[in-house]
Amino acid sequence: xxxxxxxxxxxxxNNIPFEISYTDIKAKTFVNGQQNPSTDESLKGLYQVKIxxxxxxxxxxxxxxxxxxxxxxxxxxxxxxxxxxMVTPKGNFKINxxxxxxxxxxxxxxxxxxxxxxxxxxxxxxxxxxxKAYFDVEMSSKPSSQKMEAFTIEVESYQVSGKxxxxxKDNNISESTIQGPMVMNMLGAGFKMIMKTTYxxxxxxxxx
Length: 208
Description:
Number of strands: 13
Number of helices: 2
Low-confidence stretches: none
């Protein structure tokens, strides 16, 4: 997935207006080791959706979502999921320094809802080159459960790792690759579904 962020001149409140859209989406789904038919075409309606908002230097606030109604909610859920994996490392780092923060990862559910998973995220600075900081990233979570509208979600294990490239000039995460397994159970009236998922997120963000 490629996210494009366009930033505009500061407004009267000294905030920076921005606009976010998807420019490239590729997805693969496997069930029992077999790849399902490609969902890329069905996701292309997301290209028509744009999120507008302002950045006050501390956080981003959304003010408007434009696009087809049937894709707006899907855009928000996907964006929230990816945004939770793109938390900017905080603090002062030297090469090989490791900092750990607690944050939340939002997992999209089949019914359109979100499961919020608390986790520890560790960043290790590996090098600085050409105005970019390179980090190794590790994310893990303890077993947890959450009651949804029609079922209960239990997470047995979640541990992923990857790499992140941060543009130091504008503090923008331009590249992030996260991979690893999650074991999750879905419990309902008279049933238990065990879901073993391997995440393979490759995120590119461009500021223009």
